[in-house]
Design goal:
The complex is a heterodimer. By secondary structure, chain A is mostly beta strands. In chain A, 0% of the residues lie in helices and 54% in strands. Chain A is built from no helices and 11 strands. Chain A starts with a strand and ends with a strand. The model of chain A has no long low-confidence stretch (mean pLDDT 92). By secondary structure, chain B is mostly beta strands. Chain B contains no helices and 11 strands. In chain B, strands 2, 4, 5, 9, 10 and 11 form a 6-stranded mixed β-sheet that branches. Chain B has a 5-stranded antiparallel β-sheet with strand order 1-3-8-7-6, with no helix packed on it. Chain B is globular, with a radius of gyration of 13 Å. The model of chain B has no long low-confidence stretch (mean pLDDT 94). Classes of the chains: A mainly beta, B mainly beta. Chains A and B meet through strand 4, strand 5, strand 9 and strand 10 of A and strand 5, strand 9 and strand 10 of B.
């Protein structure tokens, strides 16, 4: 299995621009998670889906952030408009429902820099 | 409000010695704890976990200790090896699938 795939791996954009991050989870996994990593706060859960349905979006910072999962093999995290404080590494992870915790498999991340 | 805290941003240990990484939490409802390891340019990978009904779990060179009364857990790596150099994240379960992570500790193993 290829694992969780994220694109792009790096993104540099200017303040005010729209940014779209993409994720392909591991086939057969029914949970998908979006995290953000910063030096100050470590890994923060932004939102997670179960069977393509958003379950908990309490970690989404503000209305500029939105996430969708149109099908079991694809999800997007969109920031519009982007701001310099959004600069971080964004991770997507997926897991199977039968076991908790240890079966969250992470993608390699997207490093976002907003100028 | 940081519910899981790793107060040491970095730790440097000599190869062959013991590495001890610490983690504190504030939410007494957490009932499962995990450690993840992260290399540069890669996503975190699961390392070891412990249920709140236990106080110790061991897997090879890695042991996690849980002190519920102090709301504290630690990861012991012995002996430490150069390949252990990475960022280690402590995490706690809130609900069936929701992980709450700490800030991470960068461990450097010196030859």
């Amino acid at each position: 299995d290829a694992g969780v795939i994220q694109s792009p791996r790096h993104e540099v954009t200017e303040m005010g621009q729209e940014v779209t991050l993409r994720c392909k989870p591991i086939s057969g996994h029914d949970y998908l998670f979006w995290y953000r990593q910063t030096m100050m706060r470590g890994l923060e859960l932004l939102i997670y889906f179960n069977n393509n349905v958003p379950i908990d979006d309490s970690g989404m910072p503000e209305d500029r952030f939105s996430a969708k999962m149109p099908n079991a093999s694809f999800s997007t995290l969109k920031i519009q408009p982007s701001e310099p404080r959004d600069s971080a590494v964004y991770f997507c992870a997926s897991s199977h429902a039968t076991r908790i915790g240890e079966t969250q498999y992470f993608g390699p991340g997207t490093r976002l820099l907003v100028l | 409000d940081q519910q899981v805290k790793q107060n040491s941003p970095s730790l440097s240990v000599q190869e062959g010695r013991i590495s001890i990484l610490n983690c504190d939490y504030t939410n007494s409802m957490f009932d499962y704890f995990l450690w993840y390891k992260k290399y540069p340019a890669e996503g975190p990978t699961f390392l070891i976990s412990i249920s709140s009904i236990k106080d110790k779990n061991e897997d090879g060179r890695f042991t996690v200790f849980l002190n519920k009364s102090a709301k504290h857990l630690s990861l012991h790596i012995v002996p430490s090896q150069p390949g252990d150099s990475a960022v280690y994240f402590c995490a706690a379960i809130q609900g069936a699938q929701k992980l709450v992570f700490g800030q991470g500790t960068r461990l450097t193993i010196n030859p």
